[in-house]
Amino acid sequence: MIHQVLDNIYKIELPIPFPLKTMNVYFIDEAPRTLVDAGIKTEASFDTLKKGLETIGYGLDSIERILITHGHIDHYGQAKRLSSLSDAPIYIHSKEYGRIRSIIHSLGYLKSILMRNGAPEALVNGAIQFIESVHNMADPLEEAFFLNDGEAISFKSMTWKTLLLPGHSPGLICFHWPEKKILFAGDHLLKEITPNPVLNVPEYRWPFRYPSL
Ligand SMILES: [Zn+2]
C-alpha cells in the first residue's frame, strides 16, 4: 500500500473502482511537503491515503502542496477535499483546466459525436450513464495555480523541472528530478496496460479536437 521509494519519497497506492484497481500518488517528505496526484474522490481512496500517511507519522493536514499531473478523475478527484483540509495550493497545467472545472459539460458533446458516427443507442446511453456515475468521484477545481513547461518545483534541498508532455491528455505534465534520475510520469508512461483515449471537448481551434494518445 505504501512504499518508500527514496529517503524522502513515498509511493501510496490508492484504490479506484475501475478494472485497473489502483493508481499511484507520491508523498514527498520535505518542505514544502508535497503530494503528486491526489486520487479519486471515494471514501476508500480517502481512507487509504489517510492511513498511508499515518504510518509515516503524518496527517492529511500536513500536505503543503498538491501537484496534479493531468485532469483525469483518478488523478485530481479528491484534490479539493485534501486542499480544504490542509490549505495546500493545487497546481496543474492550464490546458487541463477545462476538464477539472467539470466533466459533466462534456456529456452533450460526447452524445453528439457518438450519434453522428452511428453508435447504437444502447451504447450511447451506456456511455452517458458511465460519465454521470463517475461525476461524483471528482470535485471540480475552480481554484488552481498553473504550471508551465520548464517551470522549477522547489523543495528545501532539491529542485524538479516541470515537463509538458501532451499525448495522454493535452496538458499532461511530468516532474523530473535529474540528479536522481527520477521522473514522476503520471500516465505518460504506463506499464503493461493501454491508456484510455478520453474524449476531450474542443476548447480551442474549433473544430479541432485533441487526439488523446
Ligand atoms: Zn489519465
Describe the secondary-structure layout.
Layout: E1 2-6, E2 9-15, E3 22-28, E4 34-36, H1 43-55, E5 65-67, H2 73-76, H3 79-86, E6 90-92, H4 97-101, H5 107-116, H6 121-134, E7 145-146, E8 152-154, E9 159-164, E10 173-177, E11 182-184
Parallel strand pairs: 4-5, 5-6, 6-7
Antiparallel strand pairs: 1-2, 2-3, 3-4, 8-9, 9-10, 10-11
Helix pairs in contact: 5-6
Bound molecules: zinc ion.
Zinc ion is lined by residues 70, 72, 168, 187.
Summarize it.
By secondary structure, the protein is α/β, with parallel strands linked by helices. The protein has helices at residues 43-55, 73-76, 79-86, 97-101, 107-116, 121-134; strands spanning 2-6, 9-15, 22-28, 34-36, 65-67, 90-92, 145-146, 152-154, 159-164, 173-177, 182-184.
Structure description:
By secondary structure, the chain is α/β, with parallel strands linked by helices. 25% of the residues lie in helices and 22% in strands. Strand 8 and strand 9 form a beta hairpin. The structure holds zinc ion. The site of zinc ion (ZN) has 4 residues, from loops.
